[in-house]
């Protein structure tokens, strides 16, 4: 007997109870502005509600208790029945497993997957019930009940609570009373109406799939429908390409569009007859007559083959449905077969049709007039007609597999997912929605290059991906740390891979690397060149579009992936003690990590969190597998924490923070001289070893205590990017001790945040912090201190280390109080003892309300060269009435006294210039000290205060008067944007400061700004890299250019100046500029004129450009790197950069 016979007594007073969404559980999500892109997407669900969807979901004639049957009932629970209601009862007569087998229809299962089930009703007893076909279930007894929200939950509710999710619309189709579209919902970010509509509709009628897809095609073409659905005259009509952006409806040409078609049978049509003479057909709508429609019971049908609209919406990705919008607007179609086998002719041709629709709606092509491989027409031959019965058109068998629609070669179309039983259907829908979310919201799949560091004959390069595919396994936010050879000879300076993978610099064999960016697509290409014996480049040998094809000397991320989690040494600090982050210390650590009931995969067990952070797989947690051997990607993304290299007597170490919660120490190795002109050096473990086994391996890692409460978010299977240890490490040597100062930057919660609080009850844990480690012995770090306080804000400024001989201090300034660079407090400065972390002095700037500091990262200026710090300079950002109103200035700290209480802090250009974010850098030019800085800020994509006010770059001399060094009167700072004559002709005893106005009105871009640190040289040349963020709602990143200037005049290095003349014969060296695109741009000073385009660069009166042409990408915080050529013939420069 198929069904349990029960008497249903329905109650009166039913109220439909809608389901609501809830916010995401991680409020600390943030990404850098150069990755913030307008991510706009529409997903249209096309659901087949034909009569067969009311059939039972389980096809077996008899119940099998050894199997699990999913559905509304909890399979392993027991239920009782009373007056039409099934309710949980441990003494009940029915198992949930049996009830699912007996009662679930195909439509019930579809609703269970998508919405959790429904409709949900509220009865007169005040309780809420799921109203199924013939019975009720209390909502808290339904298998999809979420105890946290008190509601039923399917995959749509889970998607809605993601921080980034698509607008989703709905088309329910079948054939009832001549109508194709039974109900529809316009795309919306709120899914309440969508869920309610899915739940309330019933299954009945035929399967006009082609007409349903044609209606969707018309909608995405900005046309009104003709099959009973979408109409531009609807009062609630939603244009698929208009989105509400900051309160304004705007066209978004880059919106990605998708259709998810779920059907349980072969298509047939919208009008039927047994005689041709009795059948009319809407040929103007693209319909035509076919013979013997499947499962129709008639001889003829008027219909549309669904591959036709699928193809017209996609055309290999080249379709353009709205020609008057920029770019191409098309729609990708995914299909799911629901409850379809292959035992009947109807099922077999129905499966063929869904597979063919997926092929025509998703194949890849570079040409709009090409068809999927293996096909010669649309629909496929033979086309269904009045003389050609099925199998025909999309009902035909698939051709041989082809990579344009079957990338993995398994014989199944990439965009078709089979769901032949309830569990398979659930998996198919989850996988296809995950694929859509990945395509729509994963940002760029290209690597992002935030920083590069040079050391001796090797260069360190960090790279990260928002999402990376490892042979079909996706990992979110993996980080990389590459090491390349850096050849630095008098006649040749270039970056190289280790082509032979022998960790020996082979001049003729290791290929030279050059990066370039396609300005139209933004894609990075890496050209590889051969090398002559003298190190100069030969012709191009190859071009790669991915770093995966390159051969680094070593790469830390991959090394760490193949490192056993148990063999890692990871420290944290607990109450000022350095302890290992392992299971042995879990009781100590448990007080800092907070509540671990979420994510549920941690099972409220700190041991699971420790295992995950160390790199082990924890069931149900975020997937990081990269192969089938269980190896996991452990290194997190490295965004702003550029690597710092420290040279020890035996080998060098790279220190870098990452957004996996840790500061990492990797063994760089020892560069050993081979005394061979063609093979000059090799990299070994140490100076005393020829082994290479330890090169590139992690020595240890450190988790600051204030990062501990946020580690659980890394384990969340729905992880959204969070900052952890993202500040660049700053290393100083004091009294023969090597001290590293690190920080969280935008990790943790800023003190005085108006919206955020730490996720722990401990009032002293979870705030953005700085920390110091003694790394004198690179294999045995010592914990010194960790510092945070309520007014510190985010730890953005970084340190200024002040050496006073017998004592040394570290100074921090308060940072912003939210991720957008806002602030709600005055500027504070904190001075600590460098070695103990003890507070020495705090300063409040009452004249600088709603202000935070720019970057410090300095050991100050020693003007009398006695080894003691005399002055520290840094900028500030002061907010006015709103986020469009920002001013700035310079803080001058006179720290010449040995007593910090006597230190004086003055302002310069107070509130008279735009905000100063980047470092104020000092250098000696023509025998005099200058400071260099610029204005501008960029903390979020649209960050563009006072668009009409130009930002500036500055060079200002220090004036020596008696015992003091001061900055000149503000009136003596000259605008040299168009002419530097007055500065160039000034007396060397009365020098003038200068500034250059940056652009404000370039089409398609926000105004130009300096967010990157200036670069000083010993050639009297200063370099700036300025950026214009994109203004395109569909774009991300921006463009940047290089300024090479005479530091004393602000004029071009190619100009001649009587008082401050550059020796052009000595202008040798290379400027390396790496941008957010992962491209490194190289500027050779001796031939830089070829890169400086007068049509885009600023001019001086001598008609020489000072600014280069534009490069695609955003400049890093650390600025450009200048490399002087090695002295002598054929020598390699082994040098370290601080």
UniProtKB/TrEMBL annotation:
Keyword Zinc-finger assigned: no
Domain PilY1 beta-propeller as annotated: residue spans: 653-956
GO molecular function terms listed in the Swiss-Prot or TrEMBL record: metal ion binding
Assigned keywords, A-Z: Calcium, Metal-binding
A Pfam family that the UniProt record links to this protein: T4P_PilY1
Domain of life: Bacteria
Keyword RNA-binding in record: no
InterPro entries, A to Z: B-propeller_PilY1, vWFA_dom_sf
Full protein name: PilY1 beta-propeller domain-containing protein
């Amino acid at each position: 007997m198929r069904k349990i016979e029960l008497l249903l007594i329905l109650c009166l007073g039913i109220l439909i109870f809608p389901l609501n969404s809830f916010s995401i559980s991680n409020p600390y999500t943030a990404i850098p502005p150069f990755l913030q892109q307008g991510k706009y997407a529409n997903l249209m669900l096309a659901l087949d509600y034909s009569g067969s969807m009311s059939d039972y979901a389980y096809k077996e004639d008899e119940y099998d208790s050894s199997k699990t049957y999913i559905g509304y009932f909890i399979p392993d629970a027991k239920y009782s029945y009373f007056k039409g209601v099934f309710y949980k009862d441990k003494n009940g007569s029915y198992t949930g497993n049996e009830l699912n087998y007996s009662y679930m229809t195909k439509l019930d299962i579809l609703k269970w997957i998508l919405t959790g089930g429904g409709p949900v009703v509220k009865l007169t007893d005040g309780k809420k019930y799921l109203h199924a076909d013939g019975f009720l279930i209390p909502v808290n007894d339904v298998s999809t009940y979420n105890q946290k929200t008190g509601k039923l939950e399917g995959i749509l509710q889970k998607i809605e609570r993601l921080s980034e999710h698509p607008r989703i619309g709905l088309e329910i189709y079948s054939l009832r009373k001549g109508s194709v579209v039974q109900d529809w919902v316009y795309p919306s970010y709120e899914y309440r109406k969508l869920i309610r509509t899915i739940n309330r509709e019933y299954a009945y009628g035929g399967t006009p799939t082609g007409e349903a897809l044609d209606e969707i095609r018309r909608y995405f073409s900005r046309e009104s429908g003709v099959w009973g659905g979408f109409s531009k005259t609807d009062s609630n009509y939603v244009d698929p390409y208009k989105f509400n952006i900051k309160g304004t409806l705007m066209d978004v040409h880059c919106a990605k569009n998708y259709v998810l078609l779920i059907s349980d049978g072969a298509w047939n049509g919208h009008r039927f007859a047994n005689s041709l003479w009795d059948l009319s057909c809407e040929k103007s709508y693209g319909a035509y007559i076919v013979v013997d429609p499947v499962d129709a019971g008639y001889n003829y049908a008027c219909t549309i083959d669904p591959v036709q609209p699928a193809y017209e919406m996609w055309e290999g990705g080249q379709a353009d449905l709205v020609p008057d919008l920029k770019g191409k607007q098309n729609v990708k179609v995914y299909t799911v077969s629901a409850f379809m086998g292959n035992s009947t002719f109807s099922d077999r041709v129905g499966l063929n049709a869904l597979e063919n629709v997926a092929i025509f709606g998703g194949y890849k092509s570079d040409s709009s007039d090409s068809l999927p491989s293996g096909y010669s027409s649309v629909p496929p031959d033979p086309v269904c007609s009045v003389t050609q019965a099925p199998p025909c058109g999309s009902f035909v068998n698939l051709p041989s597999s082809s990579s344009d629609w079957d990338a993995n070669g398994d014989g199944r179309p990439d965009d078709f997912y089979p769901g032949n039983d309830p569990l398979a259907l659930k998996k198919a829908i989850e996988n296809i929605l995950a694929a859509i979310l990945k395509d729509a919201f994963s940002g760029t799949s290209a690597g992002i290059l935030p920083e590069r560091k040079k050391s001796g004959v090797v260069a360190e390069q960090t790279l990260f991906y928002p999402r990376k595919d490892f042979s079909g396994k996706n990992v979110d936010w993996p980080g990389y740390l590459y090491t390349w050879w850096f050849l630095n000879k008098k006649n040749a300076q270039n970056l190289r891979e280790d082509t032979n993978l022998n960790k020996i610099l082979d001049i003729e064999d290791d290929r030279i690397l050059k990066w370039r960016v396609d300005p139209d697509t933004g894609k990075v290409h890496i050209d590889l060149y051969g090398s002559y014996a003298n190190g100069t480049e030969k012709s191009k040998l190859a071009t790669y579009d991915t770093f995966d094809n390159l051969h680094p000397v070593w790469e830390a991320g991959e090394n760490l992936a193949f490192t056993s989690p148990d063999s890692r040494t990871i420290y944290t600090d607990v109450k000022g003690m350095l302890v290992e982050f392992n299971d042995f210390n879990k009781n100590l650590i448990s007080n800092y990590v907070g509540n671990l009931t979420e994510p549920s995969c941690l099972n409220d067990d700190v041991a699971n969190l420790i295992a995950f952070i160390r790199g082990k797989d924890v069931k149900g947690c975020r997937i990081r597998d990269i192969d089938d051997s269980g190896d996991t990607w452990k290194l997190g993304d490295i965004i702003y924490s550029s690597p710092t290299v420290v040279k020890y007597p035996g080998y060098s170490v790279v220190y870098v923070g990452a957004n996996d919660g840790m500061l990492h120490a990797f063994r760089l190795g020892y560069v050993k001289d081979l005394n061979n002109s063609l093979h000059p050096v090799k990299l070994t473990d140490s100076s005393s070893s020829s082994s290479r086994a330890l090169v590139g391996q992690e020595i240890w890692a450190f988790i600051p205590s204030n990062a501990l409460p946020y580690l659980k978010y890394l384990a969340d299977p729905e992880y959204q990017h969070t900052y952890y240890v993202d500040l660049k490490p700053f290393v100083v040597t004091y009294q023969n001790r090597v001290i590293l100062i690190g920080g969280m930057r935008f990790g943790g919660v800023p003190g005085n945040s108006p919206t955020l609080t730490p996720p722990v009850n401990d009032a002293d844990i979870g705030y953005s912090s700085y920390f110091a480690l003694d790394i004198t012995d690179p294999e045995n770090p010592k914990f010194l201190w960790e510092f945070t306080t309520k007014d510190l804000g985010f730890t953005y400024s970084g340190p200024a280390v002040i050496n006073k001989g017998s004592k040394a201090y570290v100074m921090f300034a308060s940072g912003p109080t939210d991720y957008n660079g806002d602030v709600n407090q005055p500027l504070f400065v904190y001075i600590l003892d460098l070695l103990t972390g003890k507070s020495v002095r705090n300063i409040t700037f009452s004249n600088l309300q709603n202000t935070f500091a720019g970057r410090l990262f300095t050991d100050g200026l020693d003007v009398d060269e006695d080894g003691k710090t005399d002055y520290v300079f840094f900028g500030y950002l002061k907010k006015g009435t709103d986020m469009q109103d920002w001013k700035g200035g310079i803080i001058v700290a006179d720290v010449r006294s040995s007593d910090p209480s006597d230190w004086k802090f003055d302002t310069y250009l107070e509130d008279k210039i735009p905000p100063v974010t980047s470092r104020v850098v000092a250098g000696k030019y023509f025998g005099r000290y200058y400071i260099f800085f610029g204005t501008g800020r960029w903390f979020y994509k649209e960050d563009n205060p006072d668009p009409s006010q130009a930002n500036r770059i500055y060079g200002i001399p220090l004036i020596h008067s008696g015992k003091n060094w001061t900055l000149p009167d503000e009136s003596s700072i000259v605008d040299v944007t168009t002419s530097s004559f007055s500065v160039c002709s000034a007396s060397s005893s009365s020098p003038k400061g200068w500034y250059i106005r940056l652009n404000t009105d370039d089409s398609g871009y926000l105004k130009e700004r300096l967010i990157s640190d200036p670069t000083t040289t010993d050639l009297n040349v200063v370099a700036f890299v300025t950026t214009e963020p994109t203004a395109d709602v569909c774009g991300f990143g921006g463009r940047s250019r290089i300024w090479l200037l005479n530091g004393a005049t602000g004029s071009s290095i190619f100009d001649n100046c009587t008082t401050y003349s550059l020796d052009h014969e000595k202008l040798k060296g290379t400027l390396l500029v790496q941008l957010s695109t992962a491209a490194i741009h190289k500027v050779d000073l001796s031939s830089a004129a070829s890169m400086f385009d007068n049509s885009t660069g600023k001019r001086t009166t001598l008609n020489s450009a000072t600014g280069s042409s534009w490069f695609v990408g955003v400049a890093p915080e650390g600025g450009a790197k200048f490399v002087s050529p090695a002295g002598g013939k054929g020598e390699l420069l082994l040098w370290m950069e601080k």
